[in-house]
Amino acid sequence: MSSAHNVSRVLARRFLLASAAAIVSVSAAAQTSPQAPLPAITVDAPQQRRAAAARPPQRSVAPSARASRVSNPAAPAASDQARGPALTVLTVQQALRDIQQTPGGVAIVPAEAYRNSTVANTIKDVLDYVPGVFAQPKWGDDTRLSIRGSGLSRNFHLRGVQLYMDGIPINTADGYGDFQEIDPTAYKYVAVYKGANALQFGANSMGGAINFVTATGRDPFPNGVSADMGAFGFNRLQANAGGANGPWDGFVTASTQASDGFRDHSNGHATRLSGNVGYQFSPDVETRFYLNANEVRQRIPGAVTKVSALSNPQAAAPANVAMDQQRNIDTVRLANKTTIRLDNTIIDFGVFGADRHLMHPIFQWLDYRYEDYGGFAKVTDDRLIGGFRNRLVAGVNVLNGSIDNQQFANVGGRKGALLSSSIDRSKNTSLFMEDSFYFLPNVAAIAGTQFLYAARNRQDRFLTNGDDSGATKFSLWSPKAGLLWDIDPTWQAYANISRSAEVPSFGESSNGGGGTQVIAFTSIRPQIATTYEIGTRMKRPDYAWEITAYRANIRDELQCIFGNAAGTCNVTNADLTIHQGIEAGAGAAIFRGIFDNGPAPDKIWLNVAYTLNDFRFDNDPNFRNNVLPGAPRHYLRAEVLYKNPTGFYFGPNIEWVPQSYFVDNANTLKTEPYAIWGLKAGVDNGGTYSMYVEARNIGNKAYIASASIINTASSASLLFEPGSGRAVYAGVKARW
Fold this sequence. Notes:
Elements: H1 3-30, H2 63-71, H3 92-99, E1 106-110, H4 123-127, E2 133-139, E3 142-147, E4 162-165, E5 168-169, E6 187-194, E7 208-214, E8 224-230, E9 234-245, E10 248-259, E11 268-282, E12 285-299, H5 306-311, H6 318-322, E13 326-341, E14 345-361, E15 364-385, E16 388-411, E17 414-440, E18 443-460, E19 470-488, E20 491-502, E21 510-511, E22 517-519, E23 527-540, E24 543-555, E25 558-563, E26 569-573, E27 576-592, E28 603-617, E29 634-643, E30 648-657, E31 674-684, E32 689-696, E33 704-707, E34 720-722, E35 727-735
């Protein structure tokens, strides 16, 4: 290991020890600190049974500002500038208000929606009821994730959706992402921004962005411990601790888990840690330091033929076993964020750095070291201009990094001879601005744009098979315009037209056998999409719903155009394609007062998330108007839960893909439709203890959960990932 990596790891260990000591000290002091009550986290959350940690008082609103807000209904509400209890991190309610300033498809998923009632093992458990999101586990933590058809050509890792942790990029600088660093037990909520609605993150992808937000020492229940166990040898222990003492607060959460896996050769284990320490210089200035570290070891069972997936779903691909294929990751990420609140303006800025080591024996033994770094700044100004409310959001994001990649022959899972070596460098700078002008008290006209400068440079260090060095640069504008209508305080309608630009990663290049380059990364153009979107959303205590319709006209979509039967896909640009669909979600108390008709009656609650996908080529010279492969046309998740005011709940759920979908551009081979159902029961009344039991795929249905894609498939194509069989999980959590 290089001296730079040794230094970075020593610094990370010192930071971890210092952070842990500070958090323990703050947590101990917080037990004797005076505490003030907090409002409930969400509309439907149980009543909190403890007080929040002590914090400096919120800044008062100037009398003149109060007067203007009362006299003009279009003026910003006092709560728009309020943040707390931590200034740098929004609460769930504040995040919901903030995200609903967006005239498009967005969602907030609070931890209470999944953490205490399901095993919460993968990102699918988090996003199951967000319409428009198709997330299907492949093995271990690896998941095929697509939002509005993003990244359909990516048969490995992730492309097309930008992942963030507390606003800090998880994706590498060239755009590739992984889910193995995601710990669903660690977050207090997850924010989903679909498509160009992720403009403020500088996200240069059609799928948008997902931000995973951890708690602070000022949140309710900063201390806790949980245990989960279940089918296929799964077990997990998780603990968190935190608290506040005057201007200081701290929080740390850690988990360790292991599983044998449903399929052969799919065992793995992971240890993950996230923590932060905050300091409030005043009620209006706060800084926070973040640490995230992960160690993941995971074997890969591999994709198999359709017949094998449905007749013998537990079997691994023989080549994966023979080559002991794995994906192992070590990561350390450090960051700082500072927030300053003025009378009408909030300023957020920060820096971050990440060190990631990927040890990945597959068809070759991939040894990749990633070093990413960058910074961000954002200004949110909400004030009256000429008697009209105006909300301006502007900022800059910088994400740079390098990949020291070496590929060796894979000899039974061990490194053989060196086959390639290069240094891949990426630079990304995005500037964005979005202005919302309320020309009527409850209607805003919104206009914005993002400028992205991106550069990719490869320095080939293995020249015996030729020199594949090269560089490319992109300068891309992505404008946006829309309308947001607050029909009443709980009901919105919106429409927008936006453009997104997605720059290819180094993974979009490919080499053929013998070192002959098939597609150079310098020849691949950025993917440009123009999206039209219209929708509405409502949230009231006993019912909520959202529905969005969109159409994206795409030029140069990054698509699998060439490949082989084994699922190796060479990505290049398609000509014209269309992505369009409907995203609909609803929740409602369909019955009330069944057994208890008191002040808080029991309910039967229905949750539904439905996605219609219509993705196709648009008069392509090779594939005409064929359907784009890789995603189902219809996808439905639904559950019915009996909820008692004591905290007891029970009910069934279903996942339904009623039509098979194609796995190749030629539209010659399909998956199979399926429906699987489960049950869950538990107790969670918002107090100290909660527990659950969950059964999945009770019918033990053999089905295809996800599929890789190719240009032309056959019955021998190794493209299919079987879903897990019947499984039961149980867990218990204590919090205080």
